[in-house]
Amino acid sequence: MPRKRKDSLSIIQIDSELNKIRDYDLLLERVLLEARRVVNADAGSIYIKEGDTLAIKYSQNDTKQKALPPGEKLIYSIFTIAVNDKTISGHVARTGEFVNIPDVYKLPADCPFSYDTKFDAISKYKTTSMLTLPLKTHNNLILGVIQVINARGPDGTIVPFTKDDEMLVTHFASNATVALQRAYERRHDILRMIRMAEMRDPKETGPHVNRVAGYAVEMYEHWAFKEGVPEKEREKRKDLLKLAAMLHDVGKVAISDLILKKPAKFTPEEYRTMQTHTISGALLFDDPQSDFDGIAAEVALTHHENWNGENGYPGWLDPASGEILRKDEKGGPLPRKGEEIPLWGRIVAIADVYDALICRRVYKEPWDEEKVYEELRGLSGKKFDPRLIDIFFEILPRIQQIRERNPDLEE
Hints:
Elements: H1 3-18, H2 24-39, E1 41-50, E2 53-61, H3 62-66, E3 80-82, H4 88-95, E4 99-101, H5 118-123, E5 130-136, E6 142-152, E7 158-159, H6 163-200, H7 206-227, H8 231-246, H9 257-260, H10 268-275, H11 277-283, H12 291-302, H13 343-358, H14 369-378, H15 386-394, H16 396-405
Antiparallel strand pairs: 1-2, 1-6, 2-3, 4-5, 5-6, 6-7
């Protein structure tokens, strides 16, 4: 089969797969990966336009990745670039036109932009060929920029990007932008629900739920890799978990303001009422045919259960009927414990508590970082699944990067 036809069929298949991804961040990461694959690029970055700047969202590098242990992820710097002619990405975002550079170290003298070689010195990776394209909607709105680096020839050597590469990535970027717009709208709808909850409970902010969801996905991905879960299944579950984790506390909208916003300690009766937010949250996701509803309901219902079965809630209770599925000696619901708690609930429990401790809240200052880690280790085997706590610390640099990418607005 001719290469052009093969590449075109590959892009059609990729387009179909991209349209299945619900979460905006995961879609950005996948868009970058597939753009690189289409033109056999060794590295690349994807930026999103935020006002007059470009914010880097994901960076990938096969050469650097191969130097890491299996299952580890590349950690990269978080930074922004002005939308102007000083940089290649800024120029592309400003003009809306792609730029294909055979060698960034040999730019023509009349080039409006330059390439800062200090990034290569810091990363110990030499950039040569570079193809940079805008992510542009049908009405010419620039959403961001995608940049692929170091095309590899059949023998693995670095070569310039070709005219065919330009056409392939331009077509891919156009279709990817449609998928990104759809995912952005879905993210906006979810954040609208979060803002509704935030009006009731100021602890439930957009940055908080983005961080909790980000931690949860990274923990699941590492767990799934170690468990040998196939990549296709991992990607599907990551997508579902990301959105579900963002909505872990959405059931708080059913709790009275007199309790939710009470500045003092709850009475025992008020605490019992507060606990019902897990049930209210689970009831919002009642479509048994939806994979997303299934995971979202489990997260909402079980993220306050404790690994040792002590003092967690709501226990063995059917949220739809209120039926107690397993009773204790007093006739109340037995708590879930250990692996009776769904994986999703066990993961989000750690993510939620970590973020609550390490970040400033309306009722507390952030804890010292080392004190937070000491607390999490101390709760291993009690509140938290010990294996998942081990995984949390194994991927700690990725957890810290998510915090950096999602700061609270006042910070």
